[in-house]
Amino acid sequence: AEAELIRVQRFESLAMLAGGLSHDLRNLLQPLLLAGDSLQDYQDDPRLARLGALVRDCGRRGLEMVQSMLSFARGARRAEQVRAQALIDALALLLQGSVPRSVHLDIEVTDPELSFEGNHTELQQCLLNLCLNAIQAMPDGGILRVVTTKVSLGSDFFLEHEESLAGDYVRLSVSDTGQGMPEEVLKRLFEPFFTTKEGGTGLGLLSCRRIVASHGGVMRLDSIPGEGSCFEIYIPLSRPAADASALMDGDTSLHGNA
Ligand code: ADP
Prior knowledge:
Blueprint: H1 2-40, H2 46-75, E1 80-83, H3 84-95, E2 103-109, E3 115-118, H4 120-136, E4 142-153, E5 167-176, H5 183-188, H6 204-214, E6 218-224, E7 228-236
Parallel strand pairs: 2-4
Antiparallel strand pairs: 1-3, 4-5, 5-7, 6-7
This protein binds adenosine-5'-diphosphate.
């Protein structure tokens, strides 16, 4: 289980890196290709035309490499039917050996038949991040609770984010009875590399948010210093046709609500 845990984490980091890098590289290479094309038009200066051809050929090869990197990142994020029960079972298996004896693990799946469109590996990674954070927030022990349930949200929900999120969702929540977070930490939670841990990466929550956003979902959290934290993920059970392709599109946007 330990080795599998490391493998899943490595793979997700790699896919995230490849996805992000290819997007940025593509944006750099496209103007370079255009520049090469324009240089080639200088027919009366053969040196410039040759330079133009060189720039364009290198740029084109670069783009091809980027394209295959993007396909790799996408390969890791295939859309499939995710079963809530299977997700939680896999999580429990991964957590084996990481839950200290002082932490009581409480897992509940209220609707075992529940399934939805998404990516099992990504969501598993996301839940795992949240659970490991929760465990680390309880050095003196406590209760780690993971609950999966189906919820119907009314049109008044999430009004603070200026969009109505009415509809059916699967809610995945991870809560702990740990140290909680002060305002200064809450404010910076999703900043890349923000960590309060020695040896922390500060990428865990960012990666979670990226995964949730690519599922068309949102993340909320509550935290009370000295009492604990609760992270909630809402994934829509049916995605609007317009963004159903986002999952396949290597959408690495970091939007989504905290
Ligand atoms: P890392 O775990 O590597 O620090 P994360 O992005 O996962 O990176 O978390 C960033 C920071 O958020 C953590 O360093 C910690 O201060 C805080 N944090 C995250 N989850 C919890 C939690 N359940 N309880 C208390 N603090 C948390």
